């Protein structure tokens, strides 16, 4: 039954998230709001129920697989991508590299400032 | 043996959810095997290989994407509960998250401004159309949020979703290489950076190749970036006068 309990909790939080997002017209996806709700619930509850942990870990282990169906959808946009191909490719590569480098640098720097730059791992 | 029946069986099966689910899982399995054979290179992420295999299969067999998605949506649907489940690693590492809340907030806002600024700057220099520009702008954000933002700004939502996925795979390929170059070993920084720049792809990659702590920070980054970009992007676009 633990798998079912886990799914009830996850889907319940997602449902509440959708309800809040749509009800108040917040420009954020329901599942993200559901994540916030579950986090608050866990903080209040003080521990992660076994069933939830089992289900959650199972889903997160295969997170990459879940993106495949949407990714295949790129085949519908071949022509649109072709029209601005080089602009899109160069922009995506350069901007992603710059974003990665800047974010990592800023967080490293802030970590050291906040003190106790802990070396995990 | 009846060969006419075989033909009819194919017509029936190609429009059935069963086939889409089977080929998606099979493609992912094969892609993961190929990735392991290639020494787990981040340059050819299993997701990218799976997508290429599946697009090839659909084009060869003449199955429409909409037909494929009718079956594959059962896998796609699990993205919702999986996103909610990101709260679990966040909860597990709550102490660390609380201690690092300022680095996280500052890095997040700087990261978003860098992502959007560099994207718009480069695309403008290369002479992209206004529509492409606005479609590219939310590329670092997880697809459901990006589609909403693109629509709000006047871009093309469905293309935005595709570009988000491209960004994700590019981020997964570039990330490890940039971390090595900058000598960054802290899993919290690696995870957070991957989640910010490459959303769900980066988060999944952090979980599978760095660890649960990195995954928790990647999930945090993905959520925060999505939330903040939705509010910051319209402001940045207005400031740049696009």
Automatic annotation (TrEMBL), chain A:
<feature type="transmembrane region" description="Helical">
    <location>
        <begin position="85"/>
        <end position="104"/>
    </location>
</feature>
<feature type="transmembrane region" description="Helical">
    <location>
        <begin position="27"/>
        <end position="46"/>
    </location>
</feature>
<keyword id="KW-0812">Transmembrane</keyword>
<dbReference type="Pfam" id="PF03788">
    <property type="entry name" value="LrgA"/>
</dbReference>
<dbReference type="GO" id="GO:0005886">
    <property type="term" value="C:plasma membrane"/>
</dbReference>
<keyword id="KW-1003">Cell membrane</keyword>
<feature type="transmembrane region" description="Helical">
    <location>
        <begin position="58"/>
        <end position="79"/>
    </location>
</feature>
<protein>
    <submittedName>
        <fullName>Holin-like protein</fullName>
    </submittedName>
</protein>
<dbReference type="InterPro" id="IPR005538">
    <property type="entry name" value="LrgA/CidA"/>
</dbReference>
<keyword id="KW-1133">Transmembrane helix</keyword>
<keyword id="KW-0472">Membrane</keyword>
TrEMBL record, chain B:
<protein>
    <submittedName>
        <fullName>TIGR00659 family protein</fullName>
    </submittedName>
</protein>
<keyword id="KW-1133">Transmembrane helix</keyword>
<feature type="transmembrane region" description="Helical">
    <location>
        <begin position="159"/>
        <end position="179"/>
    </location>
</feature>
<feature type="transmembrane region" description="Helical">
    <location>
        <begin position="74"/>
        <end position="91"/>
    </location>
</feature>
<feature type="transmembrane region" description="Helical">
    <location>
        <begin position="12"/>
        <end position="31"/>
    </location>
</feature>
<keyword id="KW-0472">Membrane</keyword>
<feature type="transmembrane region" description="Helical">
    <location>
        <begin position="216"/>
        <end position="240"/>
    </location>
</feature>
<keyword id="KW-0812">Transmembrane</keyword>
<dbReference type="GO" id="GO:0016020">
    <property type="term" value="C:membrane"/>
</dbReference>
<feature type="transmembrane region" description="Helical">
    <location>
        <begin position="191"/>
        <end position="210"/>
    </location>
</feature>
<dbReference type="InterPro" id="IPR007300">
    <property type="entry name" value="CidB/LrgB"/>
</dbReference>
<feature type="transmembrane region" description="Helical">
    <location>
        <begin position="100"/>
        <end position="126"/>
    </location>
</feature>
<dbReference type="Pfam" id="PF04172">
    <property type="entry name" value="LrgB"/>
</dbReference>
<feature type="transmembrane region" description="Helical">
    <location>
        <begin position="43"/>
        <end position="62"/>
    </location>
</feature>
């Amino acid at each position: 039954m633990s798998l079912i309990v886990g799914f009830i909790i996850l889907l319940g939080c997602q449902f509440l998230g959708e309800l809040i997002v749509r009800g108040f017209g917040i420009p954020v996806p329901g599942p993200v709001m559901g994540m916030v709700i579950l986090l608050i619930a866990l903080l209040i509850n003080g521990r992660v129920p076994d069933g939830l942990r089992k289900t959650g870990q199972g889903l997160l282990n295969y997170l990459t697989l879940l993106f495949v169906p949407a990714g295949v959808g790129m085949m519908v946009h071949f022509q649109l991508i072709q029209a601005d191909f080089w602009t899109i490719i160069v922009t995506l590569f350069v901007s992603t590299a710059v974003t990665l480098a800047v974010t990592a640098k800023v967080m490293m720097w802030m970590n050291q400032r906040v003190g106790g730059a802990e070396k995990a791992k | 043996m009846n060969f006419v029946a075989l033909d009819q069986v194919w017509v029936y099966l190609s429009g059935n959810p069963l086939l889409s689910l089977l080929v998606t899982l099979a493609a992912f399995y094969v892609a993961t095997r190929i990735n392991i054979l290639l020494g787990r290179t981040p340059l050819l992420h299993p997701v990218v290989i799976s997508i290429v295999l599946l697009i090839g299969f659909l084009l060869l067999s003449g199955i429409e994407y909409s037909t494929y998605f009718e079956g594959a949506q059962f896998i796609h649907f699990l993205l919702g509960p999986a996103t909610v489940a990101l709260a679990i690693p966040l909860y597990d590492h709550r102490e660390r998250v609380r201690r690092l809340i300022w680095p996280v907030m500052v890095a997040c806002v700087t990261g978003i401004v860098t992502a959007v600024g560099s994207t718009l700057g480069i695309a403008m220099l290369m002479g992209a159309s206004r529509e492409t520009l606005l479609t590219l702008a939310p590329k670092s954000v997880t697809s459901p949020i990006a589609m909403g933002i693109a629509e709000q700004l006047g871009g093309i939502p469905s293309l935005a979703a595709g570009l988000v996925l491209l960004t994700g795979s590019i981020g997964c390929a570039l990330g490890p290489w940039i971390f090595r170059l900058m000598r960054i070993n802290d899993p919290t920084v690696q995870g957070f950076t991957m989640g910010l720049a490459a959303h769900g792809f980066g988060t999944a990659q952090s979980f599978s190749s760095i660890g649960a702590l990195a995954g928790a920070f990647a999930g945090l980054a993905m959520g925060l970036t999505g939330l903040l970009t939705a509010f910051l992007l319209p402001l940045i676009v207005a400031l740049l006068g696009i």
